[in-house]
Amino acid sequence: MASVEKTPNEKPLLEISGLKTIFPTDDGIVNAVNDVSFKIDRGQTVGVVGESGCGKSVTGLSLLQLVPSPGRIEAGEIQFYRNREEDPLDIAQVAPKSELMRQIRGNEIAIIFQEPMTSLNPVYTVGNQIAEAIVLHEQVNKKTARERAIEMIARVGIPAPAQRVDEYPHQLSGGMRQRVMIAMALCCSPTLLIADEPTTALDVTIQAQVLGLMQELQAEMGMAIMLITHDLGVIADLADEVVVMYAGRVVERGTVDDIFYNPLHPYTQGLLKSIPILGKTPQKSLPSIPGTVPHPLTLPAGCSFQDRCSERMPECERMPELAVINGKTENGGHAVRCWLHTDF
Ligand SMILES: Nc1ncnc2c1ncn2[C@@H]1O[C@H](COP(=O)(O)OP(=O)(O)OP(=O)(O)O)[C@@H](O)[C@H]1O
Ligand SMILES: [Mg+2]
Question: Could you tell me the pTM of the whole model?
Answer without folding.
Answer: 0.91
